[in-house]
Amino acid sequence: MTATRLPRGFASLDQPASWPPPRSRPRPEQLERPLDVLPGVGPAIRKRLQKLGLQTVGDLLLAAPFRYEPAVPERHIADLLGEEEVAISGEVRRVSARRARGRLTILTAIVADRSGSVPAVWFNQTWLAEKLKPGTRVRLRGALRRGGFAVKAYDIGEDGEATADFAPVYHASEEITPKKLRELVGAALAHARDLGDRLPAALKEREGLPLRADALHALHRPASLAEAEVGRRRLAFDELLLLQVGIARRAREREASIAPSLGEPGELVLRYRKALPFALTPYQEQAIRELDGDLSRTLPMQRLLQGDVGSGKTVVALYALLRAVEQGRQGALMAPTETLAEQHFLTVEPICNELGVRAVLLTSSLPAREHAAARAQMASGEAQIAVGTHALIQEEVAFADLAVAVVDEQHRFGVEQRRALAEGRSPHVLHMTATPIPRTLALTVYGDLAVSEIAKPPSNRVPVVTRWIPQERAGQAYTRLRRLLDEGRQAYVVCPLIEASETSLARAAEDEAARLSRGELNGFRVGCLHGRLKPKDRRDLMASFKAQELDVLVATTVIEVGVDVPNATVMIVEEADRFGLAQLHQLRGRVGRGGEQSYCLLISRAKEELTETAVARLEALVRTTDGFELAEVDLELRGSGELLGRRQAGLSDLRFARITRDRELLERARAAAPELADDALLADEVEACFAGADPAPSA
Ligand code: ADP
Ligand code: MG
């Protein structure tokens, strides 16, 4: 493989002063340095970068572009025509800024070349005015719109980085522009070699993979899309290889451990089926058959139960727990947040009571006495089912005889699993997720996990109608909401996701609830749900919402998962552009749970003011309610396997691999994994990649 060629114009980046001498040993410690060692990064910028998850030089180096700018023709200003995207070069004549509707500001610079002049227009970047003094040379990329040249990217002076063909576009924010990120990544590229390259040379040759440092240059400064793809594939291969090596090791460990065989389904689960107010769907039945098969063996079950929000996974999960109970053993249901654990408990407890099964709730916010009592019951075996957060797996918590553990959503189970393994006995584990990926692919990616899938919700469901509504028309959303409330339905209003403490989030939610009670929701009974409520208050609140003693629940994202009130048929999400796609899909899953037509109304600022990815997220939500499809869109937008990472046994994110597109690469990594399973060089990285050391939920 020849070294990656750098595009013209970037020669200066190729050899900055800090470029290490060729063939010098990698200095990985360089990558750990905080970002303010880079030029132009002070405390303020550093903080904004941190919000994007970028803290070290290494983070920047491994920031994956989610797309590249296309190559565009260079035009004289006089030749500008239509809405074709082009590049122009010229000199600034004069600048002016004005405020348009709302928070939108418009900066206009008259730019001229020898052929003519055109007003170039920027949105919300008034600070640029001082850089665009008359006489300044600029290169702009954009298109003619309504008489002005709408600028998509610009370079000031002679260096053309941002407007270059195939310029990488990173996940930016409103505070950090794609341009700034591009510059910073350029500076970080000086450290590409410090990342090291742990693939054996023979393997690289066989697979036709470039050196890792070359791959990084190709990724961030490609001369063509093909070159960028060669770079990405090398980095993706590394990730997938680590994943496969880790999976191979875990499978080995699991084969060495023993779980109790739970035999055939018995009388208790039969009564459970009869107690349910509905018949199970064929998908639920299929999932149950599959897990019954697992539970009859002594090889610990590791099964993934995937199905969209509201598809009926919890019903299946409870079945699995009861299979343990009817053998005189215990089941545990572990949720990522307290609210979710409490919600599960609200669902589970009544049915358990009906069946004569003792269930307890264990979360870390329980008063000490209740906490101790629950623990004692778990240790004695009196509690047959325990529902809780990761408090369930804390050191001082012991089960008399745990046989089945259900792990709901995003939870990292690594630590517990390892502890259980160390004791020479491990429970059967069912992982539940509502962020589905195609079944065959899941099998390849998870390797040793078996997959059950609830592909369709119960047939009484009507798909949720989703609308995206600009802030200035928010009134219409509330009109629709009031109409539904008048018909006896209930509603959620989700408050903006502000970056602040749980406490100030709670305060904001309370303020909003008070404001709405006086205004749009005057005359309706409004409750407020947030993470700062005492568990008992939260439970009471949910119970009264369920009992229709409240019409509207104003809430933070604590309602994201688990809340189940079929009569709630409308949800308004305020400042919806601030939420992630998966998160919005989860939120939307709170409505449409009965047979009624439900609505999800997403309110945001005007489209022009949003980032490119925010627009794409909201459009996708309006377009489809299919969780599989949204998962794919999310992958494309984020370019990372957050999808896999956050929920699955401590896997860290995939940055470069696109699990849907890279199937063939995945197969190759899988084939290469056995020969590297005992490779000492990879061992640390595999450990880091699978570190289950952080059982805290990510949300
Ligand atoms: P998930 O956990 O996948 O989000 P749940 O198990 O919470 O879904 O189920 C969502 C709603 O659908 C609940 O109100 C549940 O009682 C109901 N439900 C589950 N299975 C069925 C079924 N087979 N028929 C009708 N309703 C069902
Ligand atoms: Mg659920």
Would you summarize the structure shown here?
By secondary structure, the protein is α/β, with parallel strands linked by helices.
Keywords summarizing the entry:
37% helix, binds magnesium ion, alpha/beta, binds adenosine-5'-diphosphate, disordered C terminus, single chain, 20 strands, 699 residues, disordered N terminus, 7-stranded parallel sheet, 6-stranded parallel sheet
Please describe what this structure looks like.
The protein has 699 residues and is an alpha/beta fold. It has 23 helices and 20 strands. The strands form 4 sheets. It has a 7-stranded parallel β-sheet, sandwiched between helices. A 6-stranded parallel β-sheet has the order 15-20-19-16-18-17, sandwiched between helices. α18 links the parallel β19 and β20. α7 (225-255) packs across α23 (680-689) and α11 (338-355) packs across α17 (535-546). The protein is globular, with a radius of gyration of 28 Å. Bound molecules: adenosine-5'-diphosphate and magnesium ion. Magnesium ion binds at residues 313-314, 562.
Helix and strand arrangement:
Layout: H1 11-14, H2 43-51, H3 57-61, E1 67-68, E2 86-99, E3 105-113, E4 116-123, E5 137-145, E6 148-156, E7 168-169, H4 178-188, H5 201-207, H6 212-220, H7 225-255, H8 267-275, H9 282-295, E8 302-307, H10 313-325, E9 330-334, H11 338-355, E10 359-362, H12 368-380, E11 385-388, E12 402-408, H13 414-422, E13 428-433, H14 439-446, E14 450-454, E15 465-470, H15 474-486, E16 490-494, H16 502-518, E17 526-529, H17 535-546, E18 552-555, E19 568-573, H18 581-588, E20 599-604, H19 612-623, H20 627-638, H21 642-645, H22 663-676, H23 680-689
Helix pairs in contact: 6-7, 7-22, 7-23, 9-10, 11-17, 19-20
